[in-house]
Amino acid sequence: MRLCQVAQLMDELQRFAVDFSVDPLEATIVGGDWNSESLEEIRAVAQATCRLEAAPVHPLLFSSVDVPTRSTSSTLLRRNRIDYIMHSEAALRLVAVPDAPRAAGCIPDEQHPSDHVPIAAEFEFRSREGRRRHIADRFVRGALRGDFSKPLQAPGIAAAFEAIGAPTPREAADRASGLLAGDGEREAFEALFERGRELTAEDFAEAYGRRYLLEAPFRESMACAFAFFDVDGDGAIQPGELRDTLKRIRPGISDATVDDILERADSDHNGEISPDEFGAALLRAYSASLRCNRS
Known about the structure:
This protein has 295 residues and is mostly helical. The chain folds into 3 domains: 3-125, no CATH class; 130-212, no CATH class; 216-291, EF-hand (Recoverin, domain 1). Helix content is 50%, strand content 9%. The strands form 3 sheets. Strands 1-5-2 form a 3-stranded antiparallel beta sheet. A two-stranded antiparallel ribbon has the order 3-4. Strands 6-7 form a two-stranded antiparallel ribbon.
């Protein structure tokens, strides 16, 4: 599955969630042939595209977990994994990964009529309370410990506030006590928030986003996406590279939208986007998305 198809899939998931009033944190599983050995590159570029476009996107794009499976394709040149099962970890707990058939040689063959080996996974639905606690734990691990392997988006921040939010930092720390490792983390948790006024979901978003923007996962994802847009590898994204790449990923994107992205990203107006400008544009987009906590 190429980037254009990933973008279309995320659009349809988001549209379905909106049209049928489905909680965006509800259990979601996507499985199939992604036609890529680099799942992280697909994720990084798709995330950057959605953020630059400021398009509503399903949280699965940012917080999905890949089920660990074996190679699913075997040819004369390589044996690799291009099929994936992605799931929303907040709502589903991976229970088991059944053994997949092993291809002895090139497929298809007599034993494997398809050119892909089937994969499977077994899940257990988390209870509503279990889901809330899982998301609250991810908030704590990120805001306090810098663990952003699967960063929360706006719906997740709102759910974390629902789970452990309270009028004051001290009361919020009381609600989160089971997730905090001792008095030191309790004090650090309280210090995340301004004292003297009632806490809101916006305060949770600010505390989480402030730490996320300093950590390696964001920088690594940004660098991967930048390299994809910088087609000629000269260290800068030219207007033509931005336009052509966006239109390959989002065929329906308008020229006006591309021009607006270029205008916002090229902060020094020298006609190209540097790595720092690209990163800053993604930072602004992520911060803005967290401020829309109830969307």
